[in-house]
TrEMBL record:
NCBIfam families in alphabetical order: small_GTP (TIGR00231)
Residues that, per the record, bind Mg(2+): 12
Taxonomy of the source species: Eukaryota, Amoebozoa, Tubulinea, Elardia, Arcellinida
PROSITE patterns (UniProt xref): ARF
Localisation: Golgi apparatus
Name the UniProt record assigns to this protein: ADP-ribosylation factor
One GO cellular component, as annotated: Golgi apparatus
Residue positions binding GTP: 34, 90-93
Stretches assigned to coiled coil: none
Length: 145
């Protein structure tokens, strides 16, 4: 994730870690791969997590149920009980992409009352929506301090 520049990416195999500074906040970002065999390893990265960014491919309607199942599994983890949750509804520029409201419904967010959460439409390749999402996350996290 590089703010202010478009980068070409490939699916993450394993994990990548980098530090991103945004509005005087330093985020240590763990980008964990989403492949089936890697998902059981996610929980090793949950300790001391203040915020979760979950990216949904809104153009892939066939995998939204898998995204919902994994998302709800993440939210049930005790180590993440106090983490703010930002969902990027990504690929909003593509035809037939799920809307932000459809993503919120698909992830059953209306029933999540014990966490601060926000769904932000985004287009990662152009950066659309990324700053708005990080604004929400940074404000939410700093208001808790």
């Amino acid at each position: 994730m590089k703010l202010g520049e478009v980068v070409t990416t490939i699916p993450t195999l394993g994990f990548n870690v980098e530090t991103v500074s945004y509005k005087n906040i330093s985020f240590t970002v763990w980008d964990v791969g989403g492949q089936d065999r890697i998902r059981p390893l996610w929980r090793h990265y949950y300790e001391d997590t203040d915020g979760v960014i979950y990216v949904v491919d809104t153009a892939d309607r066939n995998r939204i149920e898998t995204a919902r199942k994994e998302f709800l599994g993440i939210l049930s983890e005790d180590a993440l009980r106090d983490a703010a949750v930002l969902v990027f509804a990504n690929k909003q520029d593509l035809p037939k992409a799920l809307s932000v409201a459809e993503v919120a419904e698909a992830l059953d967010l209306r029933n999540i009352r014990q966490k601060d959460w926000h769904v932000q439409g985004s287009v990662a390749t152009s950066g659309d929506g990324l700053y708005e999402g990080l604004d929400w996350l940074s404000k939410t996290m700093t208001s808790r301090v």
